[in-house]
């Protein structure tokens, strides 16, 4: 059965053990006959590929598309069964997803993954899908496939369900974009998704979210992309800085628009320089001790995650660091959140505070923008964490650098990702400057090779100066490194080892009081520091 559904092997070809293993794993959960029909639906995508490995070697791969899809099928099937789908329903929905895809270059494994996540979200809500639910979901998939917005539609649907909208309202909001914009919906979805994602963890009445996005989208969402972006900025930055909850903020927008005006005008008014108070409140706000902190940070449970809004979680140091180590390996092509983030850990209460915000990407520069919160109101000894995501490492390099070899380039990239930039020192300085009482922070970067602690004197002026000198100091360490010996002694070409050697050189040229320490992934920080 398996040989009939995949590209045949020649008589002298060695058996494809990887394909056989993947087939076996998927058939256990989906069934042999069902899997054969699913793989048959994949055949129109199954083009021969040339795979280029990191070392430059090449190999032919005849069943790459099938293999990638097979890796996702066991997880999809488990999720489908959790929400009450029978095996034949799980098969039918999966084949419908594949048949709805009009492009032979689409990443079907990613579409399967996104469908799995939508089912996982239903399971989190303790929902079981009815026949009508499945029919509605298939209708959304059909329309999304027709206009080439299948991944965006599934991602947005899952986010809407997480926020709390009903299945009916979620599919209606998602389908409105391709329904009205047609093939232009691909442009509309980006700003729509980002504005939506900014509310992912917000405790908010779902009806308000529905009404807001209906108003923002208007008659043609394609022509309202700027309004989606303005709404996102309002939620991420204006809400925390003005100490208003997303619920208060969005309700205020709706109230201001009751006169028949465009909601875009209400958003622009609130984002204007005078920061006109949307809620009509004036005067000083006085908080009891700890009250501002409790209101500012949304209470959460579970694992650390990227979120646009500030939140707090009771979680141990090492458990939280393990969460961050997973986030640093996130992949944007799999629709995973990729960003630098900013967290403060209070070692006394074992509480993590995420400061929210949004990461911006530019050639040679990655910046995380967020609203500062007085760290002294959280802890006297803040442990400050942020990420240098593996997916964004390439953006840390100077785009005009001319590297003599790929190996040299990759080692420089890992070194830059593993060490603090000028912006990292600036964040420390800003945190110290904004603190209303004495704090003694420690700073950490989580990256692909492990965790970096960078220490500094308790001197604001010296830290500010280091934020300016940081790039020059790192460049000097790169110049001091014996690259000729490295190229001669290939046995030391391991990325982690070369990075440690470069950091040793960097420590030699750092000003007095500054130092960098590298820890491997899995290090027990509670013991190490």
Give a written overview of the molecule:
There is one protein chain. The chain has 529 residues and is an alpha+beta fold. The chain starts with a helix and ends with a helix. The protein has 22 helices and 12 strands. It has 3 domains: 1-129, no CATH class; 165-273, no CATH class; 313-528. The strands form 3 sheets. The protein has an 8-stranded mixed beta sheet, sandwiched between helices. Strands 1-2 form a two-stranded antiparallel ribbon. The protein has a two-stranded antiparallel sheet with strand order 7-8. The protein has helices at 2-5, 17-30, 32-42, 64-82, 87-99, 108-124, 131-146, 150-163, 167-181, 185-197, 206-217, 225-241, 246-256, 263-271, 291-296, 317-327, 406-418, 422-434, 460-480, 483-488, 495-509, 525-528; strands spanning 49-52, 58-61, 298-299, 311-314, 343-346, 351-354, 358-362, 365-369, 383-387, 442-447, 450-455, 515-519.
Radius of gyration: 26 Å
Shape: globular
Instruction: Count helical runs.
Output: 22
Strand order of the largest sheet: 3-4-6-5-9-10-11-12
User: What does the largest sheet look like?
Assistant: 8 strands, mixed
Q: How much of the sequence is in beta strands?
A: 5-15%
Give the beta-strand count. 12
The first-to-last residue Cα distance is 57 Å
Q: Please tell me the overall pLDDT.
A: 89
Helix content: 40-55%
Q: Write down the domain tally.
A: 3
């Amino acid at each position: 059965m398996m040989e009939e559904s995949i590209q045949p092997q020649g008589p002298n070809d060695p058996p494809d053990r990887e394909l056989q293993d993947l087939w076996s794993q998927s058939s256990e959960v989906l069934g042999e006959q069902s899997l054969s029909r699913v793989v048959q639906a994949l055949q129109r995508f199954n083009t021969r590929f040339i795979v280029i490995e990191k070392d430059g070697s090449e190999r032919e791969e005849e069943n790459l598309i099938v293999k990638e899809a097979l890796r996702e099928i066991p997880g999809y099937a488990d999720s489908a069964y959790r929400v009450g789908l029978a095996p034949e329903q799980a098969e039918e929905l999966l084949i419908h997803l594949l048949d709805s895809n009009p492009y032979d270059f689409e990443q079907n494994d990613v579409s399967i993954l996104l469908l799995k996540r939508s089912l996982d979200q239903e399971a989190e809500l303790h929902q079981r899908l009815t026949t009508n639910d499945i029919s509605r979901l298939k209708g959304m998939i059909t329309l999304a496939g027709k206009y080439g917005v299948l991944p965006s539609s599934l991602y947005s649907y899952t986010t809407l369900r997480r926020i709390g909208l009903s299945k009916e309202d979620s599919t209606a909001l998602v389908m409105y974009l391709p329904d009205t914009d047609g093939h232009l919906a691909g442009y509309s979805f980006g700003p729509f998704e980002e504005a939506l994602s900014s509310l992912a963890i917000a405790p908010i009445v779902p009806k308000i979210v529905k009404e807001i996005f209906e108003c923002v989208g208007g008659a043609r969402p394609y022509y309202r992309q700027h309004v989606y972006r303005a709404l996102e900025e309002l939620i991420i930055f204006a809400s925390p800085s003005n100490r208003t909850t997303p619920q208060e903020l969005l309700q205020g927008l709706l109230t201001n628009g009751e006169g028949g005006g465009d909601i875009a005008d209400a958003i622009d008014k609130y984002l204007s320089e005078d920061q006109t108070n949307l809620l009509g409140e004036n005067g000083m706000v006085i908080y009891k001790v700890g009250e501002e902190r409790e209101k500012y940070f949304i209470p959460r449970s579970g694992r650390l995650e990227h979120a646009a809004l500030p939140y707090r979680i009771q979680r141990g140091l090492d458990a939280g660091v393990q969460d961050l180590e997973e986030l640093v390996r996130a992949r944007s092509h799999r629709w995973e959140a990729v960003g630098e983030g900013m967290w403060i850990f209070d070692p006394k209460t074992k509480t993590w505070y995420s400061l929210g915000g949004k990461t911006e990407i530019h050639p040679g520069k990655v910046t995380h923008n967020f609203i500062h919160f007085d760290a002294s109101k959280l802890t006297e000894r803040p442990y400050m964490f942020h990420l240098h995501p593996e997916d964004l490492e390439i953006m840390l390099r100077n785009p005009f650098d001319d590297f003599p070899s790929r190996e040299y380039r990759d080692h420089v990239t890992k070194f830059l990702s593993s060490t603090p930039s000028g912006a990292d020192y600036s964040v420390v300085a800003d945190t110290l400057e904004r603190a209303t009482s004495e704090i003694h922070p420690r700073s950490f970067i989580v990256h692909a090779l492990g965790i970096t602690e960078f220490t500094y004197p308790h001197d604001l002026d010296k830290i500010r100066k280091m934020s300016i000198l940081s790039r020059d100091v790192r460049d000097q360490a790169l110049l001091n490194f014996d690259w000729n010996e490295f190229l001669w002694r290939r046995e030391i070409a391991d990325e982690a080892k070369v990075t440690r050697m470069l950091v040793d050189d960097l420590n030699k040229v750092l000003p007095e009081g500054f130092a960098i320490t590298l820890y491997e992934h899995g290090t027990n920080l509670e013991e190490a520091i």
